[in-house]
Every structure is written in C-alpha cells, then in structure tokens.
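Input/output pair, single chain:
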Amino acid sequence: MCSRKGGGNRWAGRWPADGIESHAIAADISVPEEVQAAVDQTLAHFGQLNILHNNAGVLIPGTVISQTLADWDRTFLVNVRGMMLMARSVIPAMQQQGGGVIINTASISGMVGEPNLVAYDTSKGAVINFTRQLAVEYARDNIRCNCICPGWIDTGFNDPIFEQANMSEHEVAALVTQFVPMNRQGTAADVAPSVAFLASDDAAYITGHALVLDGGLMAQ
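Output:
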C-alpha cells in the first residue's frame, strides 16, 4: 500500500525482476474508508496479511506559539491517527489467521525535545507509546508490534527543518559531523534491514520495542 499516488507503482515495477510479487494500492491513510478498502484489496489479492509497516509521516516545523492548528492537526492526522486506522483495519485479519507483525516508524524525536518541532516531536512520542500499547494488547493473539526510531536519514524528509533554518548542504554536513558520532546521515539502506529483521522470525520474542537507528546520536 502507498499513501502517495504513483509511489507504490514505481516500487512495484522494480520487484518482479527479483521474483517478488507486488501489488500497489493508493490510499489516504487519514480516511478510514480508504484505509479499509486498501486492506480489503490486499487480502483479496494475497489471501492474507502478515506484515504492516506504518511508514507514512509528515514533518511541519513550528513552536507551540507559531505552529498553526491546521498543521498541528495535519501532523497528528497522518503520524498518529493514520497508524491507528491502519492497525485497526489489519488486526482482525491477523487475529483470524493466527498472528502477524506491525512495525511503526517513530523517530528519536519522540524521545527528546527539539526546538521548533512541537507537533512532530509530540506525535512521534505518541507513536512510541501506541506501539507499546498494541504490543501488550495483542501479544496473546501472536501479533507483535515494534517501532523503529531513525535519527537523521538522508531522504529529504528533514529538508523542511534545514530550509526554514536557511542551511546549505555544507552547513548540514557540518552539523551532522558535529553531532552524529558516525559522522554521517543514515540512508534508507541503513533502515530497511532493521525493518526486515523486526518483521522476521528472528525477532519472534521481540515486541513493544523502540529500535533506535541514529549513528550513535542518542548514546551521547
């Protein structure tokens, strides 16, 4: 499933060459009817739904004074309510089939307070505890729920922060070198294996965990 029109089709087109069957479905995860329709289509196509990776998110900078209510609501609509709607739609199918895995994308921003990120930090803190609640609630249904907490990942997601601060690429690189012990931003290739691990049987006894992927940033 993909929350951005066209995005799912782009990735789905790459997987058959690797022998992976794929099926792209576009949906707005803030709309309950679209979420349920996407889940129903997935079940109709594959017959089961074993893994949900809740990865949609938005980042809109602002303080408690400057953040508009519309941007606050949009942040929670996608970052928190969207994950709840997805989980609510897939859990009954997972219960019926005897288990499943849910992985939520949180952030190290949900563990600390950062300037000018009041809505984002608060929403990601909610995601972490939402993950723990699901883990406790559905463990006896053999449904595991964990979250990943990336740090600075070089995907463009943090660009609104850098743009608002008027930072050049050189200044961003200098900031990363100063604060991240591994002296670089992470990449999608750094994150994907951790998601795959949490989804696999190798993580069969792990649930309710927030896995930090930050190049050592939070260890300081």
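Confidence is low (pLDDT under 50) at residues 1-7. The chain has two domains: 1-47, 53-219.
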